[in-house]
Amino acid sequence: MGIWILNGLTVDANNAQAKKHIFIENDKIAQVLDASESSAPQTDGHEVIDAAGKLVTPGFIDMHVHLREPGFEHKENIATGTRSAARGGFTTIACMPNTRPVIDTVDTVNYILDKAATEGVIRVLPYGTITKNQLGRELTDFAALKEAGVIGYTDDGVGVQSAQMMKDAMALAASMEMPIIAHCEDDTLVVGAPVSEGSFAKKHGLKGIPNESEAIHVGRDILLSEATGVHYHVCHVSTEQSVRLIRHAKQFGIKVTAEVCPHHLVLSDEDIPGLDANWKMNPPLRTPRDVQAVIEGLEDGTIDIIVTDHAPHTEEEKAKGMMLAPFGILGFETAFSLLYTKFVLTEQWTLGFLVDRMTQKPADVFGLPYGTLNVGSIADITIVDLETEREVLKEEIVSRSKNTPFIGWKLQGWPVVTIASGKIVWS
């Protein structure tokens, strides 16, 4: 038995829209018919989803997530994390390696892949660490990790402080045609600071994280990328200076790509209501000027893709306050609706632009065979109700943790069906 999705609205990167009938057989898209030109297909013996009035897109792809397993299962695990992602319309996610143990051995890669296969509901692609235990002292076995199934190398959660270590890592990754994904942060500039250096920090007498803590590493790594020829990908860009450096690098043909998170596109440090640690994240919320810079960077192609940096923490951890609570907020379940409400409904972006940056573009950046609705492609499909406005409610969050600043926000454009490899995994 297959699945027919009838009368769904599709959109491409150029915002060309059409109504389609899509037939899924096994794990592939078997037929795509123009609904305006063909009569209703024969659906006997198949499951039917009436998508009239709804958006049908390739499954969303998130190349920066934290599933917390192994080691921090009290925050999230692969089972709960993949279900949370499915609720948000994601069918492919790439998990960061700052677990315990970190993903620096073949055994840990195998553990992640086995867990995802048996307990997860969507595709999980693991990253391996750049350095052993993320300590910045010794490179991991890149070749063994690649053979085991990692899709790139990153010490996300900490920046690689040694320029020589990063250059060695880039040269090795380049020789293997693998990307380096960098958390850009100079540790000497951030110790003891919970928020950005800006109006909120001044108002509350807090030490601030300066923009240059991120941009210094971005600039350094761009030069190292040029020297080694590696594909260098910048994590969660948040500052005007970083955008400027990446734009300049692309103009000179350096192989650099970049990502941005929804929260850095819609919030600044001036929006933080008080000392609630659900507003504490790394990178921190920056100034309105930085927010405008990252928006413009995404719009002009300097920043390539949207990621969530889904980072669950328990309520007990976040209750420790702005100074002691860990950095990080949830991202999966509000990502599309947040950006649709903020940018598409206000006509700043086209619907096609948003969908492209969450589907085809991430697949292109990382060379993945997903992100399309073409016949023969893997049947990863998300159906979105663009009309319904709904409040973000804590009790409806699927993630094991609840740490988000968007509780109580009214958003429009909610995923209602997620299909991964031909199977309905959220409805």
From TrEMBL:
Pathway: Pyrimidine metabolism; UMP biosynthesis via de novo pathway; (S)-dihydroorotate from bicarbonate: step 3/3. Binds 2 Zn(2+) ions per subunit. Signal peptide: none annotated. Zn(2+) 2 binds at D156, H183, H236. Substrate binds at H66, L67, R68, N98, N282, H313, F327, G328. The active site is at D309. It comes from the Bacteria. Gene3D superfamilies: Metal-dependent hydrolases, Urease, subunit C, domain 1. Its EC number is 3.5.2.3. Its cofactor is Zn(2+). Zn(2+) 1 binds at H64, H66, D156, D309. It catalyses: (S)-dihydroorotate + H2O = N-carbamoyl-L-aspartate + H(+). InterPro entries: DHOase, DHOase/Allantoinase_Hydrolase, DHOase_cat, Dihydroorotase_CS, Metal-dep_hydrolase_composite, Metal_Hydrolase. It holds the Pfam family DHOase. The keyword Lipoprotein does not apply. Residues 53-241 form the Dihydroorotase catalytic domain. Keywords: Hydrolase, Metal-binding, Pyrimidine biosynthesis, Zinc. Catalyzes the reversible cyclization of carbamoyl aspartate to dihydroorotate. HAMAP family: PyrC_classI_B (MF_00220_B). Belongs to the metallo-dependent hydrolases superfamily. DHOase family. Class I DHOase subfamily. This is Dihydroorotase. The lineage of its organism: Bacteria, Bacillati, Bacillota, Bacilli, Bacillales.
